[in-house]
Amino acid sequence: MFALDNFYPNENELENFFHEYIWQGKIQLVFNNVGSDEETHAHSWSSNLDAENFEQVEFINNLYKRVVKFENVLNCKIKKWHANIYPSGFDGTIHTDYNEANKPTFLFCSNSRWEPEWGGEFIIYNDQKEAIKVFSYKPNRLIVFDGRLPHRAVAPTRVSSLLRSTIAFQCETNDYSS
Fold first, then answer.
1. Please, what are the domains in the chain?
2. Contact 49/56 with Cβ under 8 angstroms?
3. pTM for this prediction
């Protein structure tokens, strides 16, 4: 598991995506993000666009073209994407993205502006649900992790009026090790 800062080269495109698609609602969101098949209660809003069609939103398509370069290195194939939105007070639940072993998830922090005081951390746990790695939420950061590990998003603190926004790319793969 690792993070790459300043992952997307065009800050203006990132700013425009957040403003138009997240803040102004060009991506329809539904309160249905449960994280895994075992969960029964939603914890955040998620996009409902065609998960496999990367070309529907130009920014997503451009971001996908950068992330897809990892496929050969990590022996994976990106299968779907979705945007997740967390307002203040809506922490994510501990969940896994996959039941099978060795599948990476790419998590892109898609806010164009963020202050450390606003929280939004991303936490990865071991099987006993003890935190083993914490990534601060940082604009334009790509976090790559083994999606079978339990993890969750922390919502913004109450002092932030912004939504915590991420774009996740999930894979079909084997032989991935964190």
1. 2-173 (2.60.120.620)
2. yes
3. 0.88
In three-state secondary structure terms, 65 is helix
State how far the Cα of 93 lies from the Cα of 95, in Å rounded to an integer.
6
Cα separation, 172 vs 78, in Å, equals 6
User: What percentage of the chain's residues is helix, strand, coil (to nearest 5)?
Assistant: 20, 35, 45
Q: How many beta carbons lie within 10 A of that of residue 6, not counting itself?
A: 11
Strand pairing partners for 49? none
Q: How many residues does the chain have?
A: 178
pLDDT digits (tens, 9 = 90+) for 122-163: 999 999 999 999 999 999 999 999 998 999 999 999 888 889
What is each CA distance from 165 to 13, 60, 100, 102, 106, in whole angstroms? 15, 13, 26, 25, 14
